[in-house]
Amino acid sequence: MKHVTVSSDSIRKFFVTAASAVLLTAVIVVSAQETATPNGIADNRLAAFAFTNGNFYQPDGTYVRGGTLLISEGLVVELAVGNDVPAGYFEIDLEGKYVYPGFIDVYTDYGISELERRDDNGNAENLYPSDRAFNVNDAIRSNFRASTEFTPDTAERDKYRELGFSSVLSLRPDGIARGTSALITLGNKNANESIVAADAAAHYSLDKGTSSQSMPVSLMGSFALIRQTFLDAQWFGAQQPRPFTDDTLEAWNSTQALPQIMEVENWQEALTVDRVGDEFETQYILKTTGDSFRQSELIKGTNASLIIPIDFPSAPEVNDPLLADGVSFEDLKHWELAPFNPRILEENEIEFAITSSGGSDKFWENLNKAVDNGLSEHTAINAITSTAAGLLGLEDLVGQLSPNSLANFVITSSPLFAADSQILENWIEGERFVLAEDFDDRAGTYALSAGGQVYLIEMGFENGEPSAELVLDDNESRRADLDLSEDLITLSFAVDEEGNRLRLSGWPIEDSNDFGWQGNGRSPSGDRINWRMIRNSGITSVESDTESETGIPALPSEVIFPFTAYGRTELPAQQNLLIRGATVWTNEDIGNVITDVLVRDGRIAAVGDNLSADQVTVIDGSGKHLTPGIIDEHSHIALFNINETQTNSSMVRMKDVVNSENINIYRNLAGGVVAAQLLHGSANPIGGQSAIVKMRWGASPQDLLIEGADEFIKFALGENVKRSSNPASIRYPQTRMGVEQVFVDAFSQAQEYGKAWDQYNSLSRTQQRDAIAPRRDLVDETMLEILNGERFVTSHSYVQSEINMLMHVADSFDFNINTFTHILEGYKVADKMARHGAGGSTFSDWWGYKWEVRYAIPYNAALMQQAGVVVALNSDDAELSRRLNQEAAKAVKYGGVSEIDALKMVTLNPAILLHLDSRMGSIREGKDADLVLWSDHPLSIYAVAETTWIEGIPYYDRDSDMALRQQIASERARIIGTMSNNSGND
Amino acid sequence: MKNLLGKLFQSIPFLALLYTINVNAVVPIPAPDQSEPIAITGAIIHVGDGRVIGDGVITFNEGIITAVGSAGDGINTDGHRVINLQGQHVYPGFVLPNTILGLQEVGAIRATQDVMEEGDINASVRSAIAYNTDSELIPTQRFNGILTAQATPQGGLVSGSSSVFKLDGWNWEDAMLVEDVGIHLHWPSLRIRRRSPETGLFETVDNEDYAAQTQLLHSLFQAAQTYSGEPLNLNLAAMQPVLNGSAKLFLHVDQAREIISAVRFARNYGVDELVLVGAAEAMQIVDFLIAQDVPIIYERIHELPLQEWHDVDAPFKTPFLLHEAGLKVGIGGGATSVDRQRNLPFFAGTAAAYGLDRETALSLVTLNSAEILGVADRVGSLEVGKDATLFISEGDALDMRTSQVLGAYIQGRDIDLFGTQQELYERFRDKYESQVEF
Q1: Whole-number Å distance between alpha carbons of A453 and A365
Q2: d(CA A752, CA A762)
Q3: Residues 6+ away with beta carbon under 8 Å from A413
Q4: Whole-angstrom Cα distance, residue A88 to residue A71?
Q5: Which domain-ending residue is among B339, B362, B379?
Q6: 3-state DSSP call for residue A969?
Q7: Share of chain A above pLDDT 70, in %
Q8: Is B193 inside a domain boundary?
Q9: In CATH, what number is assigned to the domain containing residue B34?
Q10: Do residues B149 and B226 share a domain?
């Protein structure tokens, strides 16, 4: 007997194969919930099993070989060495099969229904939360508990179960604060018993989900909302009694001790949200989208554990070369390297769990691919077992086979990542689920000795149906009739061409050394014979379960920085330079001179004739022009979002949403642009805080920011903030009259806020203990910074009335408007601007696109300059930005500004307006070596930027640009070739 | 600061006169007919066909060019009012194809728009009668040398018929250069970019309406081919000039695969006079276009590359590449908002900076476009018998650094370049000059 074996002592022992499924499941009874009333008589059983002769996986990657696992009542009793089966346990002989702790998917929405988005305001803004005693923002839903909503869903459950998962973390992925998730086991139990850990983790994202409230519409708004909610919750929780009822803030506070899991869409969000967490002493676990490999060192620096998907991208359509042209280089590279994400994270020693992305049917295919690509097997296994459990602090409950943990495990035919390995059974809290219905380990090649002859028999199981063939010498075979049950075998076949048949019947061999059958039969001539059929050793493939040392493949290509076209494997190095004989536009008193410029350590070391220096790269600039790098005072490139829309969104920070992978950075460099103010948009009177960056192509978002730069904020006036293009808009303000009131109100409120804090801070420590600290308000704090001269205003503006108005508001609060941007009617009030001390940053010749620009004239820059205003020309546009030198030329064309003054409008003047003129904007000893070498007069349309340096680093250079184009072309050809060869296999 | 504009105008006395007259005009008064023969001498004459004449002379009378040559050619200037430019430049007026100039005043205000008619098939609608000679945008095109424009309806699949206008006139009839030069067909895209209803992110998806949209076009052309006049059908009647070759079919299409389909579609219906407008991806199928001998109005020059991996300067050099390949190319402004189309000369300047020689670049905004629009017998180059539609620039008019348009003629009429923008400039310049300190 081989199959359901009757062991020597009693009928208590089973082998793990498909055929025994029916017998065994009958043993298991779903234990009843104690508080529930049964419909029938009590049926209490111990359900204790001993799994012997198994190879039991350990989190350190080793196996307990030939051990015995004892489980009872759905819990692990112990994992012991040896094969002793204590009394009361039913033995299941694993016969060398492999056992892994039950798999955990820590990011699912299993059993949680989706919310519907309510949006009854049409195109009008939705300014208020739902009318319930929850948070002031509907996207903050900390009071939600998945455990209260969970309803078992058998179809969904079976999908996970089939993949080998025995428990999942269920959350409602909706909103910015999403409340808590529950760890749910996937057996047949009811909801009460399936939830093994309610409130297992608290969840967050940067996506407001189905909340129809207008705020936030942007990523920076989401970050701001998280910050403010932290502050609100601290203030709220510090008060007894509470100032009002807010179950959301209560829950926000009460769930802080749980694992905090934050879902992000890309690595940039991951870095930013980790910094936000740091501000509030919170370490998020980051649920990523699988792009962390692009900046693995920075991700490592967050110290965050990750939850990563392995839903690798499918190949885009590339066989049609016309369509392939439309596939970005970034997408091609991502397609190629994303399957290496887990391995790269492992190499960087970043801890991660893996999610199946909703029970994807490609889960195992992709996980195998990740392992083939160099992810170690034990890290892969731990990512769905012990590491996953550890992230939740539930390692004693799930994820490993330790005493009193849930009896969750899978049994596989061979080591998990072996080529033909199958997950045979999935045990969940002691409940058995057979996955490989058609698995039968009796398949193989057998040597049959019968009647003095030896035949070779090939036995197979297709869909669980046994079949056999007689293997002949010449690679041919002949069908045999096979009838096989647990106990009996009947086999007959023709021994020759004439059809003379051998007919055999028998039973399994009871011998630990050989596997096969024996019995009696009849020879073709009718003689009674004995026969014996033994499986050939070495025919069943014995996979090595130790990980290969040599099998780590090379990456198909290197990660580039930034991860897009024109990225490089290494950033260009800083140069010490001597640029000889160029026409140098110094923007200093000496004006334009043909001379030499020496650059050392990123600074301009000397300007003068006949300079010489050792160990520098000498560049012949004769016939060329050297200018300070162009600075764009008004840009929106390299940002994930532009606008928040709350009337006053002073708390949002563009620094939170800088995208260093945006190709327009490189294109800016190619146009001689070295720096820009990345501004909030103009959807509201008080926009957001600026990010002032240098175009350090390849650096991280944080490293783009200019260190020590003054802080700025965007204001806006006129049609945009009145929402003139949306007739349905109900948001205050709708008129220029209201716009003024917004500013007066915001600054007045901020003053009150400041007073309240001053008052609180003046209390003694004892008095403070008895008082309630004012609520910290990030809007008011930002407005106070403006009043305190710690933050400077760049205001979008068009018509003279509003320009005048804002200067009056500023005067009345005793500060200056630093810069009016757009300022297309600045020429009408330029004298007032000069008196106020406001700069003007304008377009050269845009006009006519809306009513308020009807009297915009291209002479504006010249007129403002004439009146004594510091004038910059800006782009507000990714394309125009790379031709700002030509925009400067238009100040000569329209109004006769001198060429030197015109160039200052895109170099020194924006530096002045951004308070960076002490280090940028002119070519003077000691200033940053932000330089552009032009082929021609820089105001001419025929001029091309040949090299653009930032602090002596040639981030753009025409020669290296040509080399990069070649590389891109050959890389595209190579990757597309790989894709085409894998078509249908993506 | 000196009165630069005034100084420039005063260098040509006849312009200074107009400048003093028109200070409070709504839009400049249309110029009177040429009253006497005019000879411009001492000029660098850019003919528009690639030739440049160093010390050139050009004469015109009754609105028509009577002679063009160099000083040594002995051109008779007797009885002419002679204007000696002393080395300044003369150019044919720039031709602006595919524009909504005169059809829209303020983009953000619907009431000022006469650009897109309702519906997919609007062969019968005509920009000719909607063109507003009093548009405040028109003077701002003229002072950069743009003197001719193709006012073009947009939208739908067939948007209507365009006409070519002189940028000076009392009303649309007066300003008309050539009426109804062609019908504009917008070929649908196979793939469209939209915001995903699931993720909210932009994505490119198949255009599910493509088959239905192309079918609409097929049935229009089929019905037009067999149209007898009975029963009366305005759209089918409007299609006849395209089918019989007396008007052009302007195919607005950008993507490579769609260009192939659109051109083959037109050829299958026997359309000979065909123009591609847009053709952003033309370089990908340049051999096809050469075989089909289709001229192109290319519009994406001061634009970003189509793909992140494309050459940074791809839009800048595409006119050169198309021209090098042997195609007839004009440069249009349709990818740019109408207020910025006054930069048309600088699109050509960029094409010159990235491969084209400067006179060839000039022809892409003069003669080539005139030929492509079918108006080259009147404008586009400085040749005897053509309209005296030309302008004078202090320097290279393709480079904003040197472009200073000092005077312009449309059919020999000395037009007024001093508009609202100049008036506002002088008003405030004078105000600030008179202030002792601020």
Answers
A1: 45
A2: 15
A3: A97, A98, A420, A421, A422, A424, A436, A439, A441
A4: 11
A5: B379
A6: helix
A7: 94
A8: yes
A9: 2.30.40.10
A10: yes
Residue B115 to chain A, least CA–CA distance (Å): 15
- Asked if A266 is an interface residue toward chain B (Cβ–Cβ < 8 A), one would say no
Q: Is B109 within 8 Å of A851 when comparing Cβ atoms? A: yes
Q: Is residue B231 part of a domain?
A: yes
Contact B85, B43 (CB under 8 A): yes
Task: State the Cα–Cα distance between residues B154 and B120, nearest whole angstrom.
Answer: 11
Q: What pLDDT digit, counting tens, does each position of A473-488 carry?
A: 777 888 899 998 878 8
Q: Is A859's CB within 8 Å of B337's CB?
A: no
A-B C-beta contacts closer than 8 Å: 161
Same domain? For B182 and B270 the reply is yes
Q: Where are the alpha helices (DSSP H) in A144-301?
A: 146-149, 154-162, 191-194, 219-237, 247-254, 267-279, 296-301
- For residues B243 and B181, membership in a common domain is answered with yes
What domain range is B22 assigned to? 4-92+404-434
Whether residue B33 is found in the same domain as residue B98: no
pLDDT bucket at A4, cuts 50 / 70 / 90 = very low
DSSP per-residue codes, A835-857: HHT-EEEE-SS---SSGGGTT--
Closest C-alpha to B307, from A673, A330, A880, A338: A330
Provide the H-helix boundaries in B164-250.
172-175, 210-225, 234-243
B312 touches chain A (CB under 8 A): yes
| Helical pair A800-812 and A736-761, crossing angle rounded to 10 deg | 20
Radius of gyration of chain A (CA): 36
Q: Mean pLDDT over residues A63-86, rounded? A: 92
Q: What is the pLDDT of residue A283?
A: 98
| Nearest beta carbon to residue A942 from set B1, B352, B404 | B352
For residue B392, being part of any structural domain is answered with no
For residues B143 and B68, state if they share a domain.
no
- The answer to whether residue A880 neighbours chain B at the CB level (below 8 Å) is yes
DSSP state for residue A648 in the 8-state scheme: B
Give the tokens for residue A427: 């045990």
B212 and B285 co-located in one domain: yes
A544 has a pLDDT exceeding 60: no
- Asked if A866 lies within 8 A of B304 by C-beta distance, the reply is no
Q: Is A316 on the interface with B (CB under 8 A)?
A: no
Could you report the per-residue pLDDT of A363-421, keeping only the tens digit for each?
999 999 999 999 999 999 999 999 999 999 999 999 999 999 999 999 999 999 998 88
232-251 in B: which are within 8 Å (CB) of A? Answer: none
Chain A within 8 Å of B432 (Cβ-Cβ)? yes
Q: How far is B295 from chain A (nearest CA, A)?
A: 21
A783-813 pLDDT tens trace: 999 999 999 999 999 999 999 999 999 999 9
Task: Please identify which residue in the block is written with the tokens 């990660």.
Answer: A559
A664 at B interface, C-beta within 8 A: yes
Q: Which tokens is A600 given?
A: 């050392």
Query: Is residue B356 in some structural domain?
Result: yes
Nearest CA-CA distance, residue A773 and chain B, Å: 40
The two tokens of residue B211 are 């088959």
Q: Is B81 found in the same domain as B102? A: no
Pair B332, B346: CB distance under 8 Å = no
Give the closest-approach CA distance of A287 to chain B in angstroms: 17
A236: helix, strand or coil: helix
H or E element at residue A806: helix A800-812
What is the radius of gyration, based on Cα positions, of chain B? 23
Q: Give A592-597 contacts, CB < 8 A, sequence gap 24+.
A: A592/A900, A597/A626, A597/A923, A597/A931
- Helical packing angle, A736-761 and A778-787, nearest 10°: 90
- What span, in angstroms and rounded, lies between the C-alpha atoms of A417 and A377? 7
**Which residues on A lie below 8 Å from B311 (Cβ)?**
965
